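Researcher: Please generate the 3D structure of the following complex. Treat every line as part of one assembly.
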Amino acid sequence: MKQTVTLDRVTKFMGLGFLMTIKSLFTGDLDKEGFRNFLRKVVVPIASIFLFIGLWHMGAKSLYNIEADYKIEKALTEQGQEAADVMKACIASGDISCQPNTLPSPAQVWESYRSLLRDHQIIKADKDAFAEKTATLNAKRIAEGKDPITYTGRPSFVDQILTSLKTVFAGFLLALVIAVPIGVIIGLSKTLRSSVNWLIQIFKPVSPVVWLLLVFMIVKTLTKDSNSDSAFIISFISVGLCSMWATLVNTAMGVASVDKDYINVAKVLKLGPVQKVFKVILPSSLPLIFTGLRITLSVAWMVLIAIELLAQSPGLGSFVWEEFQNGAVDSNSKIIVAMFVIGGIGFLLDRIMLTIQNAISFNKTSGI
Amino acid sequence: MISNTIHNDLVIENGIAFHEDVMLDLKHLKKVYPTPKGDYVVLEDLNLQIMKEEFVTIIGHSGCGKTTMLSMIAGLNEISGGNISVLGRHIKGPGPDRGVIFQAPSLMPWMTSLQNVMLGVNQVFPHATKSQRNDIAKYYLQKVGLEDAFHKKASDLSQGMQQGVGIARAFAIKPKVLLLDEPFGMLDSLTRGELQDILIEIWNKEKITAVMITHDVDEAIFLADRVVMMTSGPKAKIGDILNIDFERPRTRKSVLEHDDYYKYRKHLIDFLEH
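Model: Done. Output below.
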């Protein structure tokens, strides 16, 4: 029983309370109210997923038909009846050379997903083989003080996900390091707050693209002589700059709105400024700071894709763009796979932040 | 500190003459809030002397400026005119020589009850060893009956227990004056009674000069040596002062059964109703 209670708390804590309903279905302790809950929280969402896939399938099918009819029509008008018949047969046979290029069906997307995973296995094996082959040579090169030979082959889909995650975390950390201290400082002083307010209000709505260009101008010059990975630097700095505003504003607000009672206690006890900040102000504004950080992380993930796409730095964004440019038969379905992966990872990141936020915050009201 | 006795127990320090037994001295105290329609005078020419080891309760209608006066003594509210001195020295801002028990418990909810008390103790006894400071904090938490809740988060405690920690925190910094702003106003009557007993028990031992605001006539009589009645604002001042001559230590029972109790009670209620 105890275990159930803790599990219940953990899942609620992470905002995944519906898992408990599924569990109670198997353990059998499901009363009338529980059954209604089960319907609402499990059956209906699953049904909606199937409905979504069904609608998508039908939509994709009709788009496919429109595209196919158009192709046949075109062949008929441009090259005559014979060419149209060939085209019709070709489309019906499922030959790659003449497939209509449109929204892929769920089945195609699933197939692409599996092929991307297979591709990853192949590249991974290739990489391992390469590492094995160059191991002794690299050891020798390092001993001689030269750079080791690195694998320069094509990155797999999974590699690109990892690169994106690396970039988003670097950007997130940058935002944290910049926005929290500045937020605390401007939160503490009313004068400072009103004097930098216009700056924040102006920079906050600036589009990621513009940030990217600005960072590009600066980083390009700064990294001229070094051989560092400037695409990565540009993209993570841009991500950080785009996403830090929510944290900055929330931190400043949290610090500025600390309960007056706590401030009075600090005054009566004559706490020094350092103690006042670390023992009273920061802990009491942590919930708001974390709300800001949570928004920052989700914004970071969202702008990352656009920035990677523009900065030509490897990652999910450039994967999507390359596939779009590529125009291969399964390109469209790969883009859709990437879309789901991006959404899924974004959801997971948000859940992680929510969990940390709930663990840290002292008032036990959970976020949404 | 140069101080020379002139006559009996009248002392001159920094040019200010004061009676040695006076702990807290409010002289011609004035509080004005500027409003768009002109100044709003909350307190005017308020004079009050509170002796060492005295427990004074202040009673008056809501909005008469009781809390304003207390927070001015605490140094949390600026003085518009006149002055407040503690042991003959004018106060400048807040300080741990005047401990405050607020109306809301005002504990840091992310700290345990021990940490909350330690926050003040660390500040006031920086030269004591860590274990000495810990002992002080634990001693006062025990006094308020929270020996089982040292390591409980303040947010997990009941309102009454939280106010208990507030009392422990205030006594643990060994203030010269204890200021209590309706500390039990938000509690149910049973808890209120318990905390009154706890407060008076610690106070009997420490004899810290105390000024307490209350709305509760019975509370005012039970705890106080003197009950100060304030007139209604604006321009509130001291209306009347009632000496309570019950012997200490008192018990609730002995106070309620005392012949003078209803006389005192009638006096206060008559004042409040006029």
